[in-house]
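pasting for the record
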Amino acid sequence: MGEERRHIAVAERRARLALRHRLAGTAHAASPEEVARSLVALHGTDPATVYLAVGARLADAGKTVAELDRALYEDRTLVRMHGMRHTVFVFPAELAAVVHASTGLAIAAKARAGLIKDLVSGSDGRLSEEWLAEVEASALAALARRGQATVNELVQDEPRLREQFTYGAGRSYESAHTVSSRLMRVLGVEGRVVRGRPLGSWTSTQFRWAVAPPHPELPPSEAQPELLRRWLAVCGPATEADLKWWTGWKVTDVRRALAAIGAVAVSLDDGVTGYVTADDIAPVPGPAAPWAALLPGLDPTAMGWQERDWYLSPSLRPALFDGSGNVGPTVWWDGRVVGGWAQRADGALVWRVLEPAGVGREALAAIETEADRLRAWLGPTRITPRFRTPLEKELTTGQ
């Protein structure tokens, strides 16, 4: 008979989440770099998410904006780039090569092929792959000269970026695409450019581009196990479905990477099989005290797993997710989502518990303390999530 698998129950999974995701008070981090390394990746589709996610985990939340700006735009110890599932993330700079090789190469090849096909067919042959190569080289040279630039600034140096072509001609979704928007996105997926300092404040969705810092080219067979190892160390145990969803890989790639790192199968509740790294078998004790947190929409913890029932009741999903599966701002109590929060136009920060079971006076007081903490460092800043969810909209309007 084979050796019996170790069982990791929900209580231990929540303990691991509290400590490894820097959410319990005693586990808060000292710097944005420490937060990013602990989580592997911070969702960057909504610029405000990065700051709010880091602020929720810093021991001194008041330093969030200044310290994150330093890490992203001065020291460049963190980099905002395309990664898993064709999504923008913020990674520790030392992971750029791993992310690019493990997930970016395959996506980039499809993105470039799609651009060339659409460019040629949508311009009746007026624009070609050779033409695009000339424009691309010119644009990258201009970007290198400027250091950072918006698309509008690059168009001044390379006017051909203004050229348009028709996407989906004759179909219901027919639209005009500009070479600049499609090309910069492809270059981003290819790891040749990264997003730079935004225009305006840290909540701005308008940003500059910068030439990507150089990094070594790794073979996918080396990069995929490394990325999976780092993520499992933070989010294990995780199921095969979780791993496939988070990475965006084929299941064969997931299984190959699991084998390469010697991942160990464990049993989860309901008889499900999960995986941990080989050095992560020992039981993990929980934090010294229960904890509360207010996390932003698209937070990497709330979006960390595909199978979420162990920390988020299915009954809460209609209120907390939009129609595309993006999570909104969430309220946490001791390892599970219990509600959501929002900021109104006048700056008032409001929250609501949707799952009252186990949420007593201690929990309500702790949640309000976290709300006060968030209010204090936001000050006059106003936050509107990029992806609006039913509860967030309801709380915002006060209805």
